[in-house]
Request: fold
Amino acid sequence: MKKIKNVELINYLIMFISFFSICIFTNIFTRDLINLDSYYFNGFHYHILWALFSLSWVVIFLLILYLVPKKYRYNVYIILNIVVDVIFFAQICYVQSLGKFMIFSDLFVAGEGLQYVHSIFANMSVGMLLTIAFTFICMIVIKVLSKYDEDVQTKPKFVVVLVLIVVSLFFKTTGYILLGSNKNVRTWEENYNAKSIYFNYTNPNASMYISGFYEYNARAIYKYFYNLLTLDKSALKSKIDEYNNIYGVETKNNDYTGIFKGKNVIYIMMESVDNWVIDEETAPTLYKLSQTGLNFTNRYSPFFNGGQTINSEFACNTGMYAISDKETIYDKDDVTYPYSMANMLKKNGYRVASFHANTKTFYNRGKFHKRLGYDMHYSAYDLQTSGLLDKNKNYFSDYNFISDDNLYDLMISDKPFFTFFTTYSGHLEYNTNNKVYKSIKKTLSKKKYGEEEYVYRTLVHDTDDAIKTLIEKLEKSKLLDKTVLVLVSDHYVYGYSDTDYVAMKKNKLNDRKELQNTPFIIWSKDIEAKTIDTILDTADILPTLLNMLNITYDPKNYLGDDVFSTSHDDFVWFSDGTFIKSSDCDLSDESILTKVNYNINKNRDILLTNYYGK
Reply:
């Protein structure tokens, strides 16, 4: 076979292009996830930071391959390329599903997500697949070209090694310099300053845009272990005290103080029930409750960390949001929650219990809910497995769950009770293979909807039937007059494949933050109906309910505040430091950003230090 000169050089060039193509696609993809204008990333140097950091890593990869003996080089390249492709695939799928790139601690929730892998595969980015395909084509081309390479074994040249090291350092150093300075950065600017974003690593999407694919993932590992080893709890607790001194407020009575005093509370967190399907056909019960109760039309369910459901579940119960740490929020056993909803009601004589269809080991709910203050967490799956429930019923159907008298009897009590029920029916995937869908009655007309929407609406209808049945049972038990229902969706229907359609139905921009405008209804038999358009987020619900139940609380113990309070914030905030404000908000953007930054830090520091366990 005729040998070709410079094949080795051509192969290195192909390797370079292969490694760098991953970075190019990631940068293009990331641009759609952040508002560059909000971050003031308009200068030319901001648009090349990712390239500089990426080039430094690509050169390092080439150096490693250059140092490997020639006969092993291709195999090492294959291994390195596949590792990169796997991480790339995981990152893009993760961000498509949850709206943010993975950090190292997110690996701990990967197991829970695997059961919905079909949904991930059904909605994969075409660009991502083409990029991965391109890297595989590069591997094949290099393999073919290697047959024409001259079989000359040469030792690595010191000069080449030195040049590659210098070039890599040049790119890295230049990128570091172009980050600019974070000195004298005002509090409100911290989440928008390039160098602060790079070092703090608390905003995954902005960090990815600045750092590029390889630097981002390397720093994910570095920051995880750095934070693990250098945590100064006393300093963080002092910062929390400082925050409370700046923003601390006293509670004052308002028109809704004590209107539910002494009433039982059934708190239903509804899986994926979005506001665009609450109508007289799909969800007639919820629709009626929204028309005859307190209907909060401007509530948002921000996603911070972990799974979207457990993120909202945690916020509903604690008035805080899940954080990135060495453990997931539901596995953290070194944090106590004395001011959780369950603990606050338990102190006031309530019997407290939580319910869900899935096994108590999922999201570690059995232990996690005990830490949240619940006396018991009841899993229908575990009760069924133990022979205590009908083995022929599918309790993942919300209607089947509520219809079961054994479960209903566990939900109620002859003394004041607080029941937290996380529904299941509305969970993705929205196709005819959905196990809940296959097990329930289909009463909605198929004529108006395609398959995906019909399946989704049918699942929501099952949840609605469950709520209707619950109300009927409470009436029969003569408890309805003494009970308040709190109905909250955990998140918008992010498992729906066509987000443009969802945005259109919600009359929102196709933006994850805008789409998180989700249902929140409070209903009791004697409440005066009212539509409330005050802007609020999930963390605001807990203090709002405590006020309505006439339970004394310290507002400094929560990130949210009573929605009826005169000191309620006219904005909602998100994990990346951005916000949505109401049209009535008279605060400057700088003032809002300052408080958002404090909120993010306080939320993180409370959970990192077990502040309330001191």
